[in-house]
Design a protein that fits this description.
With 140 residues, the protein is an alpha+beta fold. It has one domain (2-139): Orthogonal Bundle (Arc Repressor Mutant, subunit A), CATH 1.10.10. 34% of the residues lie in helices and 21% in strands. The chain has five helices and six strands, in the order H-H-E-H-H-E-E-E-E-E-H. A three-stranded antiparallel β-sheet has the order 1-3-2. Strands 5-4-6 form a three-stranded mixed β-sheet, with no helix packed on it. A hairpin with a 5-residue loop joins strand 4 (94-99) and strand 5 (105-112). Helix 1 (2-12) crosses helix 2 (19-30). The termini are far apart. The mean pLDDT is 83. GO terms for molecular function: DNA-binding transcription factor activity; transcription cis-regulatory region binding; zinc ion binding. InterPro entries: FUR, WH-like_DNA-bd_sf, WH_DNA-bd_sf. It holds the Pfam family FUR. It comes from Arachidicoccus ginsenosidivorans. Zn(2+) binds at residues 99, 102, 135, 138.
Length: 140
């Protein structure tokens, strides 16, 4: 079943179904939160090099399969997009939560990013809200 879902996602994004893409997409589907390049590299087998992972992540971002989450330490994490995203058009306007204890990054889809009224002459491309604190698992 999972294999079929992965193949459908790749085919609907007009991407070739390769072993590397299937493995990386499976990691995202199995993850509770966002993943970094290092997380994926750690979980991937030796046959998948850093360049393959990087190119796969870039293709997934471009095709609207995953979105980028900036972090306070200027690293990048990635999370699965929802159905509203498509090639070149990300619509993941939700809050991201980073746990200070376990360092997991969560997409809080139920909380929308508030509208920011900008001064005249300014044009908004994207607004990101990152909340830091303790997640439910670490708070308990």
């Amino acid at each position: 079943m999972q294999e079929e879902i992965i193949e459908n996602i790749l085919k609907s994004a007009n991407l070739s179904v390769t072993g590397s893409r299937k493995k990386i997409l499976n990691l995202f589907l199995a993850s509770n939160g966002a993943l970094s390049h290092a997380d994926i590299e750690q979980e991937a087998d030796e046959k998948m090099d850093r360049i393959t992972i990087y190119r796969t992540l870039q293709a997934f971002v471009q095709k609207g399969i995953i979105h980028i989450i900036p972090t306070t330490d200027n690293s990048i994490r990635y999370a699965l997009c929802k159905d509203e995203c498509s090639e070149g058009h990300h619509h993941d306007q939700h809050v991201h939560f980073v746990c200070n204890e376990c360092h997991t990054t969560y997409c809080l889809e139920q909380i929308n990013v508030p509208h920011v009224k900008l001064p005249s002459g300014f044009t908004q491309d994207q607004t990101e809200v990152i909340v830091n604190g303790l997640c439910a698992n670490c708070h308990a």
